[in-house]
Amino acid sequence: MAFRSGLEEKVADLMVDLGVKYEYESTKVPYIIAHNYTPDFLLPNGVYLECKGLWEPEDRRKMLAVKEQHPELDIRMVFQSPYNKISKKSKTTYAKFCDKHDIPWTGFTDIPIGWFV
Questions:
Q1: Whole-angstrom Cα distance, residue 81 to residue 83?
Q2: Which 8-state DSSP code applies to residue 115?
Q3: Per-block average pLDDT, block size 10, for the chain (117 residues)?
């Protein structure tokens, strides 16, 4: 069996020597780390605008968590380049990611005036 560290392996060996039965990394325990989301802009109409040039994986995870935990918020994305791929190996663009997760989006040059009023 492969362990993640030498210490884990030593503890496992000790338990074997003592005849202690164990399971190694056999369960998963979900947890949530509390963070604060600070939107870029809050408009008088209650719309939040989040502006992104580069949209990193941790930013996408954060946006999904905020959307899930606060469905009452109207958060809309403004991208410098909405058709950039989320990674070199992916065919998914920023725009497609938003479409898949029901996040309104636009490119900077195409922001609907209606978003501001």
A1: 6
A2: G
A3: 91 95 92 90 96 96 95 97 96 98 97 94
